[in-house]
Structures are given as structure tokens and as C-alpha cells.
């Protein structure tokens, strides 16, 4: 019986370009191996022109063009505005809907963002949603698993098969006239906001047409592109992973400084619809500060924020995982249920034959290597050999420290059959079943060692 193809309706659909449809019948060039005969077909020449060739020419131009003070100041101010267009607009407003912006703010963000030369809101957000949905997989359009440089710039310089990129839903963006207008008029608006506008401002403002074109236009766009690309590369490469280390996003202050606050990327991938990237007041996140100011001015509303309770839960779980990993590297002694059982008589006989065995809490320890190092002196510890020293170890002679109980556990060699047996196995059960970490290893908390008793206990011979 022929099976019908089942498509799961998960609310997403394949991305349909608004203007041009690619021919889906021919195999895409990205799916063909690169050879000497076809390498130039693999290159995305349009992207190369905008992100490599023009900046290169700009650098040459800058060598022959002195930088004027006003042009420099304007370039920096315009850089910050275009940067915000990307971080507060493209990223946090449109790609993640982490807050709502009024029409004047959306127009400003769309116009400023176009001036960063990073594609339309619609194209950018679609790729970014895919990046979040399929992080580190083959469907991630800029997966860092394909290498640092691929995630930074390679994915734009080399043609990608759009069908490979994980599908996402952009219907909400198609319903925003600002997004649709910007997408349909992208090339014209990009040329205007990237190059014409800064040239005209510097030219009409203080007569520096050439400097405006090179510094406030070409080189400003180049720097802002490289800064944003760092979110895809650097933010998945360097830094801490306080919330989840099962995929690549990381938090680092350097990435935050480079990207107007987008550097707390481990947090961001965990809580993508939070309007913040940095959650501490002292962390650098000017994008968050701007959104907050816009809210005060009535330009932004519905700022989304995860409850601190949820954030702390994630942080604690990751801390617990790190603790478990650290614990696994330590010697906690052989687990009780893996130790052989020894009779009292056998224990006494072995001790008489010269083995330095001591019974404490129903567990037999071989203390031969430790006798000389015993801080309480050789005499006391030697006198315990061949005996049940539970009481003297727990206060009868000296109430040993937590560290002493920990050290003692590394000397375990057997479990004593006899009076303490039931109690010991009950403890063994609790040790193995009740206190396990996520990797199935036993947790021994301070004061919970099997050799520790709350009160000095009578000798084994008197236990019924
Ligand atoms: Zn990311
Ligand atoms: Zn994001």
C-alpha cells in the first residue's frame, strides 16, 4: 500500500521570496562539488561586492583621504544608529518580537537598519529565526559547527541552497507594512542609506563629500557588518555558558562591547524573547537601555521579560551539571554495594596476620598507608586495628572531621557482616538510590558519610 507523504503542520512554512523564485528543478549549485570549472558559480558575487570588494576599495580611498573631525564624529554617531537598527530593530523587535514598537520607531529602526548593509528585515529575521530553531545543525544558516569563518562570513560569500535552511514562519513580518516596503525596495534604500545619505550629510554639512562617502559610508558599513557578524561567530566561540552548555552560544563581555550588547548570547538563546541580553545592571547592553528609554518616551511597549525564577532555575541546573562533572573527577572510594562482605572473624584474623584493617560504621578500611600520616599520632590509630572503631572515631577518642570521613572512605575494602549489616545496607541503599547526580553517580554530602554517626555508638560486640 502506497503511503502518503505526511507533512506535520507545526505552524511554519517554507520561505517564499517576495520577488524572485529559484528554479527548484535544477540541483542547486551549493549541492554540487566545487571544481576549477565551477568555483565562480559557488561565489555569491553580489554579497562579495558589498562585504568585501567595496570595503577593500574604501580602505584604499581612506589612504588618500584625510579624516576630518566632523566626518569622524558623524560616522561614529551614524554607526551607533545603524547598529541599533540591527540590534534593537532587526533582531529584538522583528526577529524575536521581544517588544512592540510604534510606527514612528519602526520606521526609524527600518531606515537605520538598512544603513548597516545587512539585507532586509524579512530576509535577516527569517535566517535568524532559523538559526535559533536549528542552532548548530545543518539547517542552521550560519552554524558555527562548520567553522568560525563560515559562521562569520563564509555563509554569505559562498552560495547556500535556500531549501537546506530550516523553515520558519515569517507571516507576522509579512503583515507589517514597514517590513514589506523595506524588503521590496531594499536595494534602492540600501544604496541610499549606506552611501548617499552619509555622503550628502558630510558634503552639505561641512563640504567633505569624499570623506563622507569613504568614512561615514563605506568604512562605517564595513565595521558594522563585521561587528554584527561577530554575533554569529564570536558569540558562539568564546565565553561562558551559564545557562546551557549543550550547544554553542556563549556569554562574553568582548562580544557585548563589539555588538551593542548582543554578547550575552548563551542567555539570549535560552530566553530569546526577552528584550534584554544582559540581565545585570552593570553588564553592557546599550540596546536594552535604548529600548527602555523608548518605553519611557512612549515609543515602545510590551517589553517581554522572563521571570527571574525561570532564569535562576536554568542557571542552577547548569551549575549542578558542572558540579556533577567536577564530582566525577574525585575519588569517593569504592561504592558500598560493590565491596566484598567480610565476616567479623575473618576481619579479626586478617588483622592479626598483619593487615591494618579497622571497622568503622560497619565498613572495613585498610589504613596501612595512612598510619604514619595520622595527625593524631601512630599510637592511637594503630590501637584501632582489628577492632570496631566506630565510637572512638566519632567522638569516643576524637570526633573526626568531615575531611577525615571523606579520606577514610577512600580506604574502604569491605563491608562487615554482622551487627551493623542491616544498617549498613540500608545506608548503602540510600547512598545509591537517594543521592544520585544526573549522571548516575552517588552524591555524598558533608556529614552524610556512612562512617559518621551522630552520637558515639557502642562497640559492635554489644549491638544486638
Ligand atoms: Zn546565535
Ligand atoms: Zn536572536
Describe the structure.
The structure is a single chain. 49% of the residues lie in helices and 5% in strands. The protein starts with 38 loop residues before the first helix and ends in a 30-residue tail after the last helix. Residues 1-7 have low confidence and may be disordered. A four-stranded mixed beta sheet has the order 3-6-5-4. The protein has a two-stranded antiparallel sheet with strand order 1-2. The protein contains 19 helices and six strands. The protein has two domains: 29-317, no CATH class; 336-462, Flavocytochrome B2, Chain A, domain 1 (Roll). With 464 residues, the protein is mainly alpha-helical. The longest helix has 27 residues, at 69-95. It binds zinc ion (2 copies). One zinc ion (ZN) binds at residues 131, 235-236, 249, 265, 269. One zinc ion is lined by residues 91, 95-96, 128, 132, 268, 272. Its EC number is 1.14.19.1. InterPro entries: Acyl-CoA_deSatase_haem/ster-bd (IPR009160), Acyl-CoA_DS (IPR015876), Cyt_B5-like_heme/steroid-bd (IPR001199), Cyt_B5-like_heme/steroid_sf (IPR036400), Cyt_B5_heme-BS (IPR018506), FA_desaturase_dom (IPR005804), FADS-1_CS (IPR001522). Keywords: Electron transport, Fatty acid biosynthesis, Fatty acid metabolism, Heme, Iron, Lipid biosynthesis, Lipid metabolism, Membrane, Metal-binding, Oxidoreductase, Transmembrane, Transmembrane helix, Transport.
